[in-house]
Structure formats: C-alpha cells, structure tokens
Write a structure and sequence with these properties.
The complex is a heterodimer. Chain A is α+β, with helices and mostly antiparallel strands. Chain A contains four helices and four strands; from the N terminus they run βαββαβαα. Chain A has one domain: Alpha-Beta Plaits (2-Layer Sandwich). Helix content of chain A is about 30%, strand content about 10%. By secondary structure, chain B is an alpha/beta fold. Chain B is about 25% helix and about 15% strand. In chain B, α8 runs antiparallel to α11, α8 packs parallel to α13 and α15 packs across α17. The longest helix of chain B has 19 residues. Classes of the chains: A alpha+beta, B alpha/beta.
C-alpha cells in the first residue's frame, strides 16, 4: 500500500505534507510533489495537511487516478527527497481557488 | 475542557490508548455528539500532528457496527457466538452468584483475571482490575506479555531510570536500534532519528530480519535469532582487547567490571561470537569500534531482545555497553528502554497489594493454557478477561482454546468486539473506547503524561473499566472506599502530584494543557548518568548485579504489586549466552522434525490483534504472510504466493508464502495479530511454547521450532 499525490498538487506545491511526514517520503520537482511508495508507511498524516486535497490513499484512487501510482513511483526515483516545507509556488493561490478550496 | 466557538464542532484533547511507545496526544473533533475525526496534536513534540496507520480511522472505529453494546449471555455452545442481551443488573448478579459458588466450593484462588494493556491508561489499563481481584482473593496474575523480561534485566543493571530522553536523540552521533522495527512500532521516534542523521548521525539496526526500519538504516547488522547477548558480549571483547573502554567511567560508575572482563575474555572471543551470531568478525569489530568512538552513542532497545531463552541476560548485556564506553557522559548518549520507570504513579494505591492474602499463588498469563492445565488445588474455575485477548497473545493458544471450550470454566469477557477469546465467553460485557472515557495515559516510549478527555457519550451500555469494577465490587458486596470514588477522584489519588517532576502541575492544569513532560533537565542538556547516579543498590551500573541473590523475579508492577511467591530460579550475576531452547544444538530430535525457527513480529497495520477486525486495516496489512528464505523455500518446493501450513506439535496456522532473503536461512517470519476467524481458524501463537526467557518470565515467542509445508 502507499499514498499518492494526484493532479491537484500541480502549480500549488504547498508542501505542508512534507512537514507532517515522519519518514521523509516526499520528493519534488519545480511544479509539484510526489510520494516514494517504497518509503511511505501509510500513516496518512499528510492527507489532512494538504490544503488542496492532493493526497489519496492507494485504494481510494478512482480508475482515472490510478496512473498516479506509476507517476509518483517514477518521479520519486528521479527527483530529490525533501525534509522541510518549501514556500508555495506563486501560482498556488490561483490554483487553489480554481479547485474550490 | 473543550474549546468552543458558537456553531463550530467541539474539540477535545485526547491521548492514544494503545500499547505503543509513542502514546500520541490526539485531537478529537465532535460534531452534534458524533466523533468526526481523531488527529495527532500538532504542537506535541513527539506526536507532531500525525498518528499512524493503525489509528488512521480511529473515529470510525468507535462506530464499528460489531461493537459489543450491551451485556450478553451465551445461549449456544461455547464459541458459537450465540448470545442474548441481558441487563447489567442480571449480568452482575449472574457473575456474583457463580463466583460466590466457586469460592464456596473451591476457594477464591479458583478465579483468575487476565488483563493486559489493551488500554494503557492509569485508570482503565494494566492495573484496572488489580484492586478488585486482590480484594476477591483471586490467584494473582503475572502479566509478562511484553517488557517484563526487559524490566528485570534492566533493573538488575541500571535500575529504574528512564534513561536517555527520546528527544535528546537529536544530539546522538551513533544510534543503534536493537531489536525494534521503529517504522512499524515506534514511528514518532523516527523523525528524531532523521534529524540526528541530518546532523551527522549513523543509524544502525540490529535485527535478523530485514524490516522496514532495517531497510531505512545506514547499516543493517543481522545476527541469528536469539544471539543478541552473544553479540553484545563479543562487542565487549573488542572494546576491552582494543582498549576502547572508558576506564575512568568504569572505575567510578560501574560495579563488577573485573569479573565481567574475565568472563568476556574467557568465553566470548570475537571468533566464537562470529560463529554464534553468524556475523563476520569484521562486522563485530566495526560495530564495537564505531560505538566506542562516535560519541554520543546511544542504544534504543526493543522488546524483541527478550523473546528467547537468553532474553533477560541479553537485555543486561546490551544495557552495559553505554557505560563501558562512557556514552552516558554526553547529551544523547546512553540507553533508552522505558521512561515509564520515572512516571510518578502510586501503584500501591492503584493495585492495593495489601488486599492480597498471604500465600496467594501466581499464574503467568503468557502461559495461560498451561496454567489452567496444571493448576489443581484449586483448579481454575473462572477466568475474567479484560484489556486482553489471550487466544491471540499467549503461547500454546490451541491448548488455551481447548480450556475455553470447557463448560465448567466460567468465562467473563469485557470487550469492544467479539474477539478470538471473547467468542468463548459465558457473559460478555460492553467496554468503552477511548473517546468515550476520561483517562490519563502513561507512556513507555517518551516522558509525557497525557490527559484524555471524554469527548462523546458511550454507545449502548458500554462502561469504562473503572465503572465495571465499581459494579462488580457492589455485586460482590465490597464496601471499601476504593470503589466509592469517581474517575476524577481516582486519577487525583493515583498520580503523585507532590513529585518534583510535577512541580507546578495539578489535575486541572494537566486537563487544560493536555500533556506534561516528566523529564527533568532540558532535552538539550539532559545527561542523567554523566556521573553515575544509577538507581541501583550500589548506585552504579551493575555489570555484576547485586540483585542475583534473591533469584529470578518479575517486577511487581507486572503482578499487581505482589512481591511474594516469586519463582526465584537461580540467576547468574554476570551476563551470558546459551543456545536457545528450541534449536539443533539444544534439542536435535526436535530440530530434526521441525527444522525452522520462527519469529512473529508486530504487524504494521494492527496493534497486536486490535484493528485486525477492520476490513480497511486488513487491506492495509495484507493477508497473513510466512516469509521463507529462498533456500528453505526451494528445499520444500514452495513458491511465492502459495498457501503454506506452519506447524509443530503444539499447533498450526496457515499463510501465504513470501520467498525472500529479507529473512535469514533457517528462520521464517510471520506477523502476529491476525484474528482466527479471518485467518483459516488459527494464528501464529498456535505454535508458540509456554517457556519463559531467563529473566522476568518474558515469553519465548522467538524461540520456537516449526516445519512449513505447501498446502495440498
């Protein structure tokens, strides 16, 4: 089992999830965050931390969202892990508003 | 008290009830009387806003439709699960009538309480029934499921000290996690290790299996199961022969070094220890050298160390290492076992050992089936189970189940759910879940005392253990003041508010703030044993214990504060290693029939057997697995994913084969906690023996031989 970061994170990258993660399983690129499924221990502490509801437990994914499993796993190999919260992206407020949160 | 804003949901302070070192501070959110969420308290230095996979759906767990909501009486055969609702009054009358009859015929010691840490509260936890059963004159139960062997070994070595504050580990430069899967069972300590690592610490895990934690460590050291004492003694050999000890610290603050040194040099050469542990000589040397040189060095001891024949002496040997290298001189250097020792709780007032009649016998609960089997004068005629599930957690579970099916064994179970044990009950009583009761939580993995506010009304007719025993006391005609107090009054008197650790604190302040740290000295300055001050008879770290004369004992907190009728087997005052009970060297005939050792680690998504009845947790945990090393699997023609049967003369269980070198050759791994009804009618403790480790009556759950076969 794992948790995955879905589309909502793109252009926000609030990274409150990172501060809540006890195992530092988050990786980021310039647009968004990803979860390393090998490191995630399923505690779910990140889910309520995300202001845009971008984190979903594996078995709560809809069929259309399941491709995020591979996206997260691959990106986690490619991009560096981070331990602390980063400033949100300049586009975050607009994206959040567009998502209705 | 709840924080309220007009129209908003109510927010209450909670404390996690589970038997876990982390004891999280929680936040209950209640909307219209319904618990809608339970989260980790964001400001708490250990909890840091997150709970864990087990507690993820804790709010919904309160509303699980399978909760026992009313007292019930068995109407079908034992184990059939056929019950009818009765009133509390009828339940109490039935129990009191049966017990009075048993007492008249067999004496009060024919009654036994089986209670453990299904709830870890001061009021409703380990000791919740002690005063009642002591007053009743029941056989005293010895509750040694977890950490009792560690307790005896630890107290014989360093005394009842809390050791290193877990928050001080950020200052450590060398962290050995010995026999503990932090990521599954001590999660909230991990971010502290990561911070230490960011500051330059090396994290070493010692564990035969490649656990989640071992995979995340800088170095995984994999001794054979049951050889930890030998490894520690081998490390000592390196420290002594290479002049890496802190002789000044040893001279000032340890007792018995010369005798220890003589034994270590005589019996535990690195070559012999390499043979015993299966580790390369170079690894033992490196471990010892790094531990000595990379100060502050610290050891986090796990309970797994105690679960084999060598258990208590393993704890002793490991607990000596920090003193030998002077690690205690530094902030973040030394040892962490259980800060519980420093909690200012008035156990005698909680347990009332003064009620116990002289000569009362003792039954060890980890071998409950064996005790019921062998106790004859009088036989056990009634068992009262609360906060525990012995069919899942005690050794020889098949033998125990045989007894629980007996019509003449009157079984009363107070529970949340109809567990593998509760299904045999004659009378079922409905227990509250944590948000439904007031409680103060003790902790054994950190220094915080945590208040848990009652946030919602209990469903149906559920009551906390405190109220359960008030009702039982009334039914039995006990007129003592003990049971005339409210929960608040009991908590007030069970906690020693005059302790310097609670200076400036009161119940009201604890309730307002939610938690208080009992660690004296700051996280960044605390060095509890920089100058000795060990709470032992000599005031020193006792390499040769001065407590061997009285023989083996269980620390009274694990036996209702009763200190009579201790088993007092002879104790070697110096640590040693010997081959496990169940291995080819000790018992070749048994090993010929059952050639594999087995360990049964704690599951990731269950808390022992708790939460293992939740479908969502079953999904998160996955089905029962049996991990075999590839060469053991090949030898038996077992392929990954096949159903296998694990068995010995005591019993059997089934699981899905995992073929992986995550385990060592000759050792299989099967997580604990699966409910029999969801697991082909059995689980791992069906194969476990009733033997104890060499100190403190720890169960030898990691010292069992089995065979594995593919299901037809």
């Amino acid at each position: 089992m794992t948790h995955v970061v879905i589309e909502n994170c793109r252009d926000c990258r609030f990274t409150d999830c990172v501060a809540s993660c006890p195992v530092s399983c988050f990786h980021v690129d310039e647009l968004r965050a990803y979860i390393d499924p090998q490191t995630c221990i399923d505690c779910g502490a990140c889910i309520p931390a995300c202001p845009v509801h971008a984190i979903v437990e594996e078995f709560d994914l809809s069929d259309e969202q399941r491709h995020w499993l591979d996206v997260n796993a691959e990106a986690a190999r490619r991009y560096p892990a981070i331990r602390g919260k980063l400033p949100a992206l300049p586009t975050a407020a607009a994206k959040r508003a567009s998502l209705g949160y | 008290m709840p924080t309220t804003h007009a129209g908003d949901p109510l927010v209450f302070k909670g404390g996690c009830p589970q038997d876990c070192p982390d004891t999280c501070a929680m936040v209950y959110t209640v909307d219209n009387g319904k618990l809608v969420s339970v989260r980790g308290a964001p400001e708490h230095p250990i909890t840091r806003g997150g709970l864990c996979v087990k507690l993820k759906d804790f709010a919904q767990h309160h509303y699980n439709p399978d909760r026992i909501l009313y007292p019930q009486r068995r109407v079908g055969p034992k184990g059939s699960g056929q019950y009818e609702r009765i009133s509390w009054e009828e339940a109490m009358t039935t129990i009191a009538t049966r017990w009075k009859d048993i007492i008249a015929t067999h004496g009060s010691q024919a009654i036994l309480n089986c209670c453990y840490l299904g709830n870890q509260g001061v009021l409703n936890g380990l000791t919740s029934g002690d005063a009642f059963f002591n007053r009743l004159g029941a056989t005293v139960s010895e509750k040694t499921f977890c950490a009792s062997g560690s307790s005896t070994g630890y107290l014989m070595t360093v005394g009842p000290t809390g050791g290193v504050d877990p928050e001080s580990f950020v200052h450590s430069r060398y962290i050995i996690i010995w026999g503990l899967n932090t990521l599954s069972t001590n999660l909230h300590q991990w971010p502290i290790y990561l911070e230490a690592k960011a500051r330059g610490a090396k994290i070493v895990v010692i564990d035969p299996q490649r656990s989640r934690t071992a995979k995340a460590a800088d170095w995984h050291v994999r001794p054979k199961v049951g050889t930890d004492a030998a490894l520690a003694l081998g490390m000592m050999n390196v420290l002594i022969t290479e002049g890496l000890v802190d002789q000044d610290y040893i001279d000032r603050y340890t007792h018995g070094y010369d005798e220890l040194k003589e034994r270590v040099l005589r019996d535990y050469s690195v070559g012999r220890v390499a043979e015993i542990t299966g580790l390369p000589v170079a690894d033992i040397q490196t471990l010892a050298r790094e531990f000595a040189s990379a100060q502050p060095a610290v050891i986090r001891m796990g309970v797994a160390l105690e679960r084999n024949r060598n258990g208590g002496q393993s704890i002793r040997a490991v607990a000596m290492l920090p003193a030998l290298v002077g690690a205690w001189r530094h902030v973040g250097g030394g040892l962490l076992e259980m800060p519980l020792w420093e909690f200012p709780l008035k156990y005698d007032d909680m347990c009332r050992p003064d009620f116990i009649r002289p000569g009362t016998r003792v039954a060890n609960l980890t071998r409950l089936g064996h005790c019921i089997d062998t106790f004859v004068d009088p036989p056990i005629k009634s068992l009262f189970v609360n906060n525990s599930n012995p069919v899942s957690q005690a050794g020889e579970s098949s033998k125990l189940e045989g007894h629980l099916r007996r019509e003449d064994l009157f079984l009363v179970v107070s529970e949340l759910f109809v567990t593998d044990t509760a299904k045999y009950a004659d009378i079922l009583l409905p227990a509250t879940m944590q948000a439904e009761q007031m409680e103060v939580m003790l902790a054994w993995g950190h220094y915080y005392l945590t208040f848990n506010e009652k946030a919602i009304e209990p469903p149906g007719e559920c009551v906390p253990n405190s109220e359960l025993f008030r009702r039982l006391a009334r039914a039995m005609g006990f007129d003592d003041d003990y049971w005339k107090r409210t929960d608040e009054e009991m908590l007030e008197s069970f906690i020693d508010w005059t302790s310097p650790k609670l200076a400036g604190w009161s119940m009201q302040r604890l309730r307002d703030v939610g938690y208080v740290s009992l660690a004296e000295g700051g996280t960044d300055t605390r060095k509890p044993h920089a100058e000795g001050n060990f709470p032992t008879p000599t005031g020193k770290c006792e390499l040769r214990t001065t407590q061997a004369d009285k023989g083996n004992f269980v620390v009274p907190v694990w036996r209702s504060m009763y200190n009579e009728m201790q088993s007092a087997e002879p104790v070697d005052p110096l640590p040693y290693w010997q081959p496990m009970y169940e291995c080819a060297e000790t018992n070749p005939a048994l090993a010929a029939r059952f050639p594999l050792n087995i360990i049964s680690p704690k599951p990731h998504a269950f808390l022992n057997s708790q939460y293992a009845n939740e479908t969502i947790q079953q999904q998160r945990q996955g089905p029962q697995t049996v991990t075999l090393h590839p060469q053991d699997a090949k030898h038996r023609g077992i392929e990954a994913g096949e159903m296998v049967r694990v068995f010995n003369d005591r019993g059997s269980f089934r699981g899905s084969a995992v073929v992986s070198d995550d385990t060592l050759p000759g050792l299989i791994v099967a997580p604990l906690g699966y409910w029999h009804e969801f697991n082909h009618g059995s689980a791992v403790n069906a194969i476990s023996s009733s033997e104890h480790s060499n100190l403190g009556h720890a169960p030898s759950f990691s010292d069992n031989l089995v065979e594995v076969e593919r299901m037809a």
